Amino acid sequence: MSSRSEIQQTYTVWDLPSRIFHWVNLLLVVLLLFVGLIMLFKPELGITGLAAKIKLKELHIVIGYGFAINLAMRLLWGFIGNKFARWGTLFFNKEDLKQYINAMKNNNTPQYIGHNPFGKIAIILILLTLLIISITGLIRAGTDVYYPPFGGITQEYIAQKNVDPASIKPYDKTGVDDKKYAVLSPYKGLAGKVHLYSVYFLILLILLHVVGVVLAEIKHQPGIVSAMISGKKSLKSSDKNE
Ligand code: HEM
């Protein structure tokens, strides 16, 4: 017998800009990771020349601009987008989490139109980590190979008096004030370290996110992967959780 509560309803969840962000971000993260790993394992791969080293960094940075712009647009969309794209959707309290854990323990997992509480935690951590990677990447790009937006001020700061800052070249000390370069060095080093460790943390988060999504898809809420393509979820009205 079919009661009214068992009728499936279709909800539009992920709006187009959120879906575009998600898949563009995935593509660019994979590309950046690929180029980043080549940069990290240059000696093992037999890449030794300075020109090749700089070219790899430039390629990584150009892709990185696309990644940072895509992220900035998503962060902005959090104030403009539909209900499930907005920042408010990521709030949850301890009770929501407890209820979700208890429901799962009893094999009675509720269906969510948006994210379940674990999904919310994952999204908050992933977006924060992406932001830290962007900021430290841009700082490193500016202080290492003098790329925008921080390259110009770095060149101006380290240039010797009467030297045109624009003439300062990466990995070339001509015209560079050694003392000022030494002041800059620890910040450049710190940005590089934070960038790399945040990338390791991101890889861990991506693995957890993928495992969580696949388990949820198989065990209790089929259709969540295709929802990130179509934007739509079909749920029983009795089970719906915002
Ligand atoms: C999720 C996105 C990203 C991933 C997975 C990623 C990954 C990596 C990896 C694995 C390295 C090698 C670390 C090393 O050689 O020490 C690296 C270095 C670097 N990344 Fe990224 N990166 C990302 C985003 C960005 C962005 C947005 C920018 C700036 C536009 C950027 C700029 C740099 C620079 C300049 C370096 C060179 C550090 C150095 O060796 O001097 N990265 N990145």
Helical amount: 55-70%
Present as ligands are: protoporphyrin IX containing FE
Round the Cα radius of gyration to an integer and report it: 23 Å
What is the CATH H-level superfamily?
A: Transmembrane di-heme cytochromes, Chain C
> Which term fits the overall shape?
elongated
Mean pLDDT: 93
Strands, count: 4
Q: What is the strand arrangement across the widest sheet? A: 1-3
- What would the CATH topology be? Fumarate Reductase Cytochrome B subunit
Q: What structural class do the secondary elements suggest?
A: mainly alpha
Oligomeric state of the chains present here: single chain
The count of domains is 1
Q: Element order, helices and strands?
A: EHHHHEHHHHEE
The CATH class turns out to be Mainly Alpha
Task: Please give a structural write-up.
- The chain is mostly helical and 242 residues long.
- The protein has one domain (11-241): Transmembrane di-heme cytochromes, Chain C (Fumarate Reductase Cytochrome B subunit).
- Helices cover 65% and strands 6% of the residues.
- The protein has helices spanning 16-40, 42-45, 50-80, 94-105, 117-144, 151-158, 178-219, 224-230; strands spanning 8-12, 111-112, 232-236, 240-241.
- A two-stranded antiparallel sheet has the order 1-3. A two-stranded parallel sheet has the order 2-4.
- Helix 5 (117-144) packs antiparallel against helix 7 (178-219).
- The longest helix has 42 residues, at 178-219.
- The chain starts with 7 loop residues before the first strand and ends with a strand.
- Bound molecules: protoporphyrin IX containing FE.
- The site of protoporphyrin IX containing FE has 26 residues, from helix 1, helix 3, helix 5 and helix 7.
